[in-house]
Model the fold of this input.
Amino acid sequence: MRVELARIVAAVALLLVLGGAPGCSGMPSGKLYPIRGEVVSIAAARNEIVLHHEAIAGFMQGMTMPFPVANRDLLEGVEPGDRVEGVLLVEGARYALVSLAEIPKPTPTAAAS
Ligand SMILES: [Cu+2]
Done:
């Protein structure tokens, strides 16, 4: 009797632990945000690019700031003055551009948003 009760308590406790863990910790917490802006400068030696970026919905207002890039190759082919768009990965206090590409021509329809 006492042993069985202990087993039930243990099983319920295990279920609670398993049910409560996902989403709290141990899972990747990274969020991806689309980002768009203009290249201000490039510091390839530091794997960094300074963007004058538009507002990033749910993350930050438009501003000029440096972004680390996940891969130096992302900096190839972009120059100061280029309009670019990409994807920003945010994990806690850390962030990095994981995608970046020049926008060939800003069209009226694309600029509407
Ligand atoms: Cu910013």
The pocket of copper (II) ion is lined by residues 53, 60, 63, 65 (CB under 6 Å). The longest strand covers residues 31-43. Helices lie at 2-20. Residues 23 and 29 are 8 Å apart (CA to CA).
